[in-house]
Amino acid sequence: MTALLFGYFVVFMARVIDVTMMTLRVLMVMRGKKLWAATFGFFEVLIYIIALKLVFDTLDDPLSLIIYALGFAAGNVVGTWLEEKLAIGYLTMQVITFRDAWNFSDRLREEGFGVSLFPCQGREGCHQLLNVVFERKRFRELEKKVNEWDPKAFVTVMDTKPIRGGTFRATRK
C-alpha cells in the first residue's frame, strides 16, 4: 500500500513539475529568452516521459489516471504563480487621462520608468496618453502610483517584447 501511495505521489509531483516547466518554457519563448526556453524544455520532456511511463505501467488503475490529471492541473497553477513571482520581462501601461500629465510623467521618469506622452482624442474630448514601459516586477508599484494620481484614468497593460533604446532604469546599464 505504501508503494502504491508513493507511486501516486511521484506521478503527481512529476506532472506538477513538468507542467510548471512547460508554462515557464512558453513564457520564455514569448519573451525571446531562447536559452532559458531550451533549458526548461529539456527538463520538461525528461520529467514528462518519466511520469508517462509510470502511468502506462498502471493503466488498469483509474486512480493513477486521476492523479496524473490532477498533477497537470496543479502544474498550471504552480507555473502561473511562479511566473508572476519571477516577473521576467517588460510591460507597457497606457494611461489615458483628462488630467495634466506633464508633472506626473516627469516624476515617473525620475523613478526609472520609460514614459512617452501623447495627445489623443476620445469620445469625450481631448485627453493625454502616457505610454509607460517598465519591468514587470514593478507592476503593482506603478499601478498604485497611477491610481493615486488619477483614480478615473483609463488604464490598459500589454506584454512588451524585448526592447532597445530609450532611457529608463532597465536600459541604463
Quick tags:
DUF2179, four-stranded antiparallel β-sheet, 5 helices, cell membrane, single chain, elongated, Alpha-Beta Plaits, 173 residues, alpha+beta
Structural topology:
Layout: H1 2-30, H2 34-56, H3 62-86, E1 90-97, H4 102-110, E2 114-122, E3 125-135, H5 139-149, E4 154-160
Antiparallel strand pairs: 1-3, 1-4, 2-3
What is the string of SSEs from the N terminus onward?
Answer: HHHEHEEHE
Give the neighbour order of strands across the main sheet. Answer: 2-3-1-4
Proportion of β residues?
Answer: 15-25%
Major pleated sheet? 4 strands, antiparallel
Shape: elongated
Number of strands: 4
Give the total of domains. 2
Rg over C-alpha atoms, rounded to the nearest angstrom: 23 Å
Mean pLDDT: 87
Q: Enumerate how many helices there are, as a single number.
A: 5
Low-confidence stretches: none
Give the termini distance in whole angstroms: 58 Å
Overall structural class, as computed from helix and strand content, comes to: alpha+beta
**Helicity level, as a percent range?**
55-70%
